[in-house]
Amino acid sequence: MSATLASIRIKNFALVEDLTWSPCRGFNAISGETGAGKSILIGALKLLLGERADRSLIRAGADQCAVEALFETADPRPLDLVLENHGAESCEDGKLIVKRSFSASAGRQFVNGSPCNIALLKELGDLLVDLHGPHDHQSLFSRDEQTRLLDDYAGISETAENYRSLRSRWLSLRKEKETLSTQSQAVAREIELLRHQTEEIAAAELRDGEDEEWNNAHRAASNAKRIREICSSATGLLSEDESSLSSRLGDLGKLLKELLRLDERTAPFESAQIEIIEQIADLSRDIESYADKIDTDPEKLAEIEARLDTIGNLKRKYGNSIREVLDFSQTAHARLKELENMEERGGSLDSEILAAEKSMRSLAENLSQTRAKASKKLAAAVAAQLLELGFRQAEFSIKLDSVPDFGPHGTELAEFVFAPNPGEPSHPLRQIASSGEISRVMLALKCALAAQDRVALLVFDEIDANVGGETATKVGAKMRELGTLRQVLCITHLPQVAASASAHFLVEKKVKEGRTVSLLTPLTAEERENEIARMLGGKSASAHQHAKALLGEPQTR
Known about the structure:
The protein is of the alpha/beta class. Helix content is 57%, strand content 19%. Among the domains are: 1-133 and 453-522, P-loop containing nucleotide triphosphate hydrolases (Rossmann fold, 3-Layer(aba) Sandwich), CATH 3.40.50; 191-336, no CATH class; 525-557, no CATH class.
C-alpha cells in the first residue's frame, strides 16, 4: 500500500466536538442513523484533500475548527518527492501528518509541521485518497480517465507520460514554426533596419567624449586670426616690445645687482629676478609655439565641421550623447544576433519537428499495440467481477476509437461499453442511468485494477445505494476482498455490506451538556450484532438471528 490512514482527529467541525478515529488497515464499515453525522467524516477528509472550507461548519461557540490526519507508508519516496517540490518537510519514519484549521476570517494548513498552500494538499490528496460517492463517479465517464485506467492496467503509464511529454514538445515546435512563419516578413524588415543602424554607427568609429574635443578644435579653427593676434600681442608684452616685461626685468636686474654690492643679504632677490625672466621666456616660447599650430586652412575647418556633423547626426538618431549612441549600438547588435538566430532556427525547426514526430509516432504505435491486448484482458477481468456482483448476463467491453492526428493519449481513446441487460444494445458507460449499476461497475473496476491502483485508501460514501438483497451481499464480499489489498472506508446503510467489514464503527448523535454532538465508536461483537439487527429493520429476534447469520464467524480487527 502507498499510504494508509492511521488516525484522524476532528475538532469543532459541525456536530463533532473532539473526535479521534483510528481505522484498521482492511475494510472499515461506518453506519448509523440518517443525520447522525456520517458525512462529517467525508467532509473532514475532503478538507485535508484541499477542498474549499465551508466556515458555516465551524461548531457553534467555537473560534475555529481543525482536522488532522496521520498517514503511514512503507515507501515514502513518492510523497517525499511532492513535499520536496513544495519545500515542505519530508516524511520521517514513513509518517505523514496533514493538518488544516480555519476560523471565520482565516485558514491555515500544515504538512509535517511546515506551513503549506492548498495546492500541496490537493497534490498529496491525489496520492493518498480515492473518494467515491453518489456524485463522485463522473470521473469514470471521462474517456481520458478510462484511457488512463487502461494504461495503468497495461503497465504503460510511464510510456504514456513519455508520449505526452514528447507530444508537448512536438506541439511547441510546431507553434514556434508557425510563429516564425507569421513573423518572417516583419523579422526580415527589422534585421535590415538593425544592420543599417549598427553599420552606420560602426563606420563612424566613435570614441566616448570625442565630441568635446572636436568642439574645442572647431572654436579654435573658427577664431584662428584673432587667436594669432592675441598671441602676437602677448609675446610682445612679454619679450619683444621695447617696454616688454623682459626689458623692464633687465632694468630691475641692474638695480638688484647694485643692491647686492651694498648688502649681500639681498642675494635671493637677484635669484628670484633671474627665475622670473626664465619663466617669462618659457611662456613667450609656449605662446609662439601654440600660435604656430593654429591652422587657418579652410579645408581643415571643413574637416572638423564634417566630423561634428557626423556625430550630431548620430546623436539625433540614437541618443543625446556619444555614450548613448554606443549603448544603442550594443543593444541593436544583440537584437540583430537574436533575430539572425531566429532565421537560422527556422531552418532547423523542420528537421526537429520531423524527428519529434517520428519518436512520438513510435511511442503511439507501442501504446496502441499494448492497449489492444490489455483492453481485452481488462474487459474480461471486469466482466468476471461484474458476474460476482450480480450481473449474470451483462457484457462489458473496451473500444479503442481512433482520433485525428496525435491526441493527448496517442492515436486512440478508450471507451468503456456496458450492456447490463441481455438482449439490450451496449452503450458507453456515461449513458448508463442507474446509479446502482454505475456503483457496481465502479467497484468491479476497482477490484480488477486493485493490483495496479496507486492509491491505498479507498473511501466509499454510500455507493451501495439502490442495491439490496443478494446483490448487497455480493457487494459486501467484494468490498472485503478489496480490503485485503487496500484500506477501505465505507459509509453504508446495508447490513450485508457492514457485516462483511473487518471493523465496524457506529456514528450516533447524543446530547452532552445540553449540546448535540456526533460520536464515532468501534463496535464490540455484541454491539455489532445489535447494529446489524437495527439496519435490518429492528431489534426483533428474527433480526438478531439474521444479523448473526450475516456476521458468521466473529470479525476481527
